[in-house]
Design a protein that fits this description.
The structure holds two protein chains of two kinds. Chain A is mainly α. Helices cover about 70% and strands about 0% of the residues of chain A. The model of chain A has no long low-confidence stretch (mean pLDDT about 95). The chains are: A mainly alpha, B alpha/beta. Chain A: It comes from Actinokineospora spheciospongiae. Chain A: This is Urease accessory protein UreF.
Amino acid sequence: MDISALVLADSRYPGGGHVHSGGLEEAVSRGLVRGERELPGFLLGRLRTAGELAAVFAAAAALLPTDWAGLDAELDARTPSPAQRTASRAQGRGTMRAGVRAWPSPVLDALLSAVPRPHHPITLGALTGVAGGSPADAAAVAGYLAVSGPASAAVRLLGLDPFAVNAMVADLSAELRTQATRAAATAALPAADLPAPGSPGLDLLAEAHARHHKEEVRLFAS
Amino acid sequence: MNFDPTATDPDAHEPTPATGRAFRIGIGGPVGSGKTALTAALCRALTEVRLAVVTNDIYTTEDADFLRRAGVLDTDRIEAVQTGACPHTAIRDDITANLDAVEALEERHPGLELVIIESGGDNLTAVFSRGLVDAQVFVVDVAGGDKVPRKGGPGVTTADLLVINKTDLAPLVGADMAVMVSDAHRMRGTLPVITQSLVETPDAPDVAAWVRGLLR
């Protein structure tokens, strides 16, 4: 694994990830996730749906294609929730702001001139690719962040035992590894032919979160 | 530091921010010390300055609503940032959400001169990143106890301005103002300290004058 993947997956990477819960805050406020019993299912479900989609597009972006707008539009088409699209672009832009300082490259300049606020997985893939990492590295980072963010949000929102939650994330290692391999295998496909795993439950939670935020207290942006 | 009197040192002061972006002032301090009241006072006092506000309160829109109700600022000049339950992270370790809010305000209001970024209430270790703000004010209050300045911490010791707020309450809570002020100066060296009561001077004239000095 390229070291850039460690930098990007680090929770201390200053890309704005800590203000997103990936739907967990809404799930907690609805009583769907109350503690250690429900969290592993939420994380695994998120990894296999939203995480899978992120891994697929991060792997494709790591090959540094020239048609960035096309790749970004294909991910847009696979993200039906407007709130999810907003959250993904906010994280993509934040991750890119930190990334262009760390790995300056004309490739990133071209990406940003085509798509000023790229989706998060595309940003992760492009940065990994520019830094010399592989599509599998990028996919692993995207998959890992899809679960590490909500796991950290659960510790903060529910006061869960951090050792227990950390162990839940570590338990997903095998799943993450096979997912990264799978995503790398489809990375070179034409953008329109990339897989399109869906997560209707998370889409609905994201929409509900955005709606509730306007009416009442929410600590996370998504 | 070079001790050779003939040598020219690089300018020890931060460069003036490039034109095209607003000057950014952070206002931090513990919960309830009067950050939002000071922000509102500055909005009232600095009528000649084109300004906007970013709030980071844990209750997301509470402070923004306070400023709107106070009628001191148009709604579209206030951005509320969600901090993921980590107010210090959002102003120090990962400033992305706050930078996004500042940039949104700058895009919406071309020619903006000042953005005040009010942190969520936090503890004495919280400071703003220099990547986010050009200058920062740390607000403590008399009711929090007169030992607060000598406890120190990066907020008290390194902020560009320390404000000791609610001085009108000192006799009521048994706080010794002389001790607070001398402790503050001892902890801060030459950095300035302002004591104020927004009950007695609602427009925070001393802090407003300090801000005007930065904008010149």
